[in-house]
Amino acid sequence: MGASAAVIALGGCSNDPRPQLLERNETTAATPPPVGDTVRFAEPEALQSANGSLEVTITASPATITHDEHTRYGYTYNQTSPGPTLRIRPGDQLTVHLENQLPEDTNLHTHGLHVSPEGNADNIFARVRPGETRTYRYNIPDDHRGGLFWYHPHAHGTVAKQVAAGLAGAIIIEDDTDAVTEIADSTERILILSDPPAVSSESGLSATPMEQMIGRQGSGVLVNGVRQPHITANGGDRERWRIVNASSSRYYQLAIEDHPLWVIASDGGRIGTPQEAAQVLLAPGERTEVLVLPSTSGSYALRALEYDRGDVGMGGMMGGSSSPSPEVTVATLDVTIAAPVKAPPSTLDTPDLRLLEPTATRTLELGMAMGGMMGGSMMSFTIDGREFDADRTDIAVKLGAIERWEITNSTTMDHPFHLHVWPFVVEGVENEMGWKDTVNVPAQDSVTIVIPFVGMTGRTVYHCHILDHEDLGMMGVIEVFA
Ligand code: C2O
Ligand code: CU
Ligand code: CU
User: Fold this and answer.
1) pLDDT in tens, 136-161
2) 82: cis peptide before it, omega within 30°?
């Protein structure tokens, strides 16, 4: 068994581009959407580049955050969670002044961006102490692909806690594909999925050793910081949803009632031929871009279906050690006026990346063992038997190499594998997936990726994106040299 396909096709490859709408449930259709107490879909503020640059100050600080009827203690960027959306274009310079008003170190990572990992660019080894400000400057290459990326803290040891507490924001790189009629014609929405802990103070943000080993999950799911928002559309609209899993550990097996999802991008990469899917699995760190094409009026739930990402194993020695994500309603699509369904684009004119020819092969093994050293854990989380050491370089690659990495997961739980800076292609999947930077490696399975190490040199990391596992040591250092 090779890679897990993030996209599950509905009834194979049909040449008919129109989605097949399933039968509506009459009882549901007759129920009017709740009006008075409906939470409206809302997006973070967008900051747009102009004349080739975007310069912003982003302050990380604790706050009492209100959503629906609840308040909780958490972390914010500029007093909001998620933080502002940064909209830039290939060739732009992005400058972020990160001001740390947290009670601990933080820093900034631009997840998925093909930018330098050195100096004051995407350097995750640098730390910003409480009270300090650090200026990050990113030069986006002229040929950077368009897509949805995101920013979050990456100060080793506190990443899971800070992201779960609310520190995440979207980065959009716009490109010419956005001008394709069927896409330009659509209503674009960003959905940042998170599951923060419902706590009232700083001490509530820390997780138990067991929660860290499983990967912490909050009790509810939020979209752009609110619970179960309603999105309103008309039949015949094209809804374009750009979704990021910004949870520390929770997986989202997404499906919307009575509608297929037309996948047009994965992580930061466009797919040449839009793929009709019944469900899309988003592991932590992953993104997808889908078209939803409503027709019949009614209310349709966007759900995360139950997904079992395994357990910490050890022959049941650890009680309460499994990690199912129970089914949860994420949002609701309210379709008001019925009209004939519109077609998705038939092609997005993106090269098929499955044709890359690797020049070298490497194997990596994601492992867990009794007796940990990091974070007071009872178990160690490793790559190739070693815990993370910022001073050790685990993999050295010459610029220009195209490497095939066979990533094996010898443990009893899933681990989403993520590589900074250099996007990759997943080998052996039936459906075209586009560029990826994060891929789920299922328990006791393996995934093969092909990575062209081009465009950028520097030293950075690859790791499990269950962020507690990264904090516990499931991370390695790679250096690409000229
Ligand atoms: Cu989304 Cu190394 O991170
Ligand atoms: Cu990253
Ligand atoms: Cu993991």
Assistant:
1) 999 999 999 999 999 999 999 999 99
2) yes
